[in-house]
Structures are given as C-alpha cells and as structure tokens.
Design goal:
Elements lengths: L2 H15 L2 H7 E7 L14 H14 E5 L2 E7 L2 E12 L3 E5 L2 E6 L5 E13 L2 E9 L1 H7 L7 H13 L1 H18 L8
Parallel strand pairs: 1-8
Antiparallel strand pairs: 2-4, 3-4, 4-7, 5-6, 7-8
Length: 189
C-alpha cells in the first residue's frame, strides 16, 4: 500500500472510530473539509479536530459506521477514493444550514449502504483538504425520507414541533465539539 492509499484508508478509519491519535497522524493542521457546511459548527474547525468532530456527528446517527474502500487513485497531490458508507440509523441524523438546525431525521433502525466518491488534497504526507460526491438521494431513500412518505413526514414534523429536533441538534453539536476537544488529550506524532 502506498502513502496515498494509507492516508485514504486512515482518514475513513478516523471517521469510523473517532481515534484522536490516528487523526493527528493523518490530517494536516490546516485541513479544510468542504463538506462541513451541513454539519455541526465544530466540523468546520481546520485540522484533525474538525475531522474528529465530523466522526462524532456521523457516529451519533449511524451505529456500526463503516466505509469500505472500493478503489483509490492518485495524481498530482490529489487522491480519489470510491467507497461505500454503511451503518444502522439508530440516532437522529441532523443536518445544519449556516450553523443552525436544517433537518433532523428521527432514528429509523434502517441500514444504509450507498456509494460516495471523495477527493482528498495531500501535502507532506497528510490530508489538507476534503470534498465529496455522495449519493444522498439513495441514503434518504434507504431511510424512508425520499420520496417522502406521509408517516415519515409526520414523524419529522412532530420532532420539529415537540422540540426533539432542536434537542438532537444541540446534543450532536455538543458531541462534535467534545470530539474536537479530545485531540488535546491525544499524543501527537
């Protein structure tokens, strides 16, 4: 396995596990995650801390989160990773817009399994940038959200009206912030 493949596998292992030591060894201090726009604000923190926050955000919603890598290609300081995102939706999946709650999907207990392509910028043996092309429509279909069924739509509305959606957004934001702070306790490489 070459250094680019090791970085790709390492980055997604961080998302699966929330391992601060691995984050410090794989992610550059100036790493920027373009995908953090729909995540809790801690996910936008540059470097390993933001990656750990992203891990906490996804693991909050998906138990047994896995990213089996299907292929890796590299050219000119960029790595393209084709993979699957898999797990069971056991916690609220909360999406944000401009740092505020946008949508909360109550736990469904359903399995997700869909493809994604990620582009990683690499410099000096670490990941410095991340963006993705995800098949979110397939994921939302697997969760029963798209196309919207009346039952799921009513459940999401009830969550919003009862305050459960806001409480879920607060809880996942706190988890993400806590994960970002956990980096200071991890040994650096």
């Amino acid at each position: 396995m070459n250094v680019f493949e090791e970085l790709a596998y390492g980055l997604f292992r961080i998302l699966e596990t929330g391992d601060p030591s691995l984050a410090a060894s794989v992610v550059a201090a100036d790493n920027r995650n373009r995908e953090a726009a729909v995540a809790p604000s801690a996910c936008s923190i540059p470097g390993p801390a933001g990656t750990l926050a992203s891990s906490a955000w996804m693991r909050f919603a998906f138990e047994g989160l896995r990213f089996p890598v299907l292929g890796v290609a590299e050219s000119g300081g960029q790595v393209w990773v084709r993979l699957r995102m898999q797990g069971r939706h056991t916690g609220p999946f909360v999406r944000f817009r401009d740092g505020a709650l946008d949508q909360a999907i109550p736990p469904t207990g359903r399995e997700i399994d869909f493809e994604q392509i990620h582009v990683l910028d690499v410099r000096n043996g670490k990941v410095t940038g991340h963006e993705a092309v995800r098949d979110d429509i397939t994921m939302l279909g697997q969760l029963g959200v798209f196309p919207p069924s009346p039952a799921v739509g009513l459940r999401m509305l009830a969550w919003r009206l009862s305050g459960k959606a806001n409480r879920a957004a607060t809880a996942v934001s706190q988890q993400a912030a806590y994960a970002a702070e956990s980096l200071t306790a991890a040994p650096s490489h």
